[in-house]
Write a structure and sequence with these properties.
Elements: H1 9-20, H2 27-34, H3 43-55, E1 60-62, E2 70-72, E3 79-83, E4 89-92, E5 118-121, H4 124-140, H5 145-152, H6 159-169, H7 177-183, H8 188-201, E6 204-208, E7 211-214, H9 216-221
Parallel strand pairs: 3-5
Antiparallel strand pairs: 1-2, 3-4, 6-7
Helix pairs in contact: 2-3, 6-8
Length: 222
């Protein structure tokens, strides 16, 4: 239920940026967009206001299969589908002719309040990226060692992003921002921004909440 909430300039800007998003952004993604207009705003402030707006019923907070929280401006009832590679989340419309009912003997004593349906798979962009990576590997077998190395080097990879990828490449298991900070010269907030950018490129995956690991494309990038 919506509650009365004092709308500050920060909250108005957060709502405006959220409504511009066609996807379901994380607090990190929104922070990157809002910081361009409010340079002094912190990630903690953005996250706190998103939580407040969610509790007030003005936006929806999505916790897709335990992954990083995402936010949705659309309050109408709908379900979601997410990509297991890049963590992209999209809306899906299901024809609800009748509600999904759970037999009382299967509720384990719970008082049922609602039902949420989630689908998962690989999004179209990741499918294309996987296909290109497969083609590149096939072509790479026909080139010399030096030619293949140059072909794998992507454009637009910053020194900070490369530093984060190299740190992740040394980790045997998925690791958190503090682990990456200990292995690099970057602060945790800087790492968060770089992780967001690297996830968009498909170089970093998040198998668990606040845990990250390098993808095959990421290894090729370094």
């Amino acid at each position: 239920m919506k509650t009365k909430l004092r709308m500050t300039h920060q909250r108005e800007l957060i709502l405006a940026e959220l409504r511009k998003c066609r996807t379901h952004p994380t607090a990190d993604i929104l922070y990157g967009r809002i910081k361009k207009k409010l340079p002094r705003i912190s990630l903690a402030t953005v996250y706190r206001n998103l939580e407040i707006l969610s509790e007030a019923g003005m936006i929806r907070k999505l916790e897709i299969s335990g992954r990083q929280k995402r936010f949705d401006w659309d309050l109408e009832q709908h379900d979601h589908i997410f990509c297991i590679q890049c963590q992209r989340v999209d809306n899906i419309e299901l024809e609800k002719k009748q509600p999904v009912l759970l037999p009382e003997e299967n509720t384990r004593g719970y008082q049922i309040a609602g039902c949420r349906i989630e689908f998962f798979g690989v999004c179209p962009k990741c499918q294309q990226r996987n296909a290109r990576a497969g083609d590149s590997r096939k072509k790479g077998k026909k080139t010399t060692k030096g030619e293949n190395k140059m072909a794998c080097k992507p454009k637009g990879l910053s020194d900070r992003q490369r530093e984060v990828l190299e740190a992740l490449a040394k980790c045997k298991d998925a690791c958190g921002s503090k682990d990456i900070a200990a292995a690099t010269s970057l602060e945790p907030k800087q790492i968060s921004c770089q992780i967001t950018a690297l996830k968009k490129k498909g170089f970093v995956d998040s198998p668990a909440r606040c845990k990250y690991e390098i993808t095959d494309d990421g290894r090729n990038a370094i």
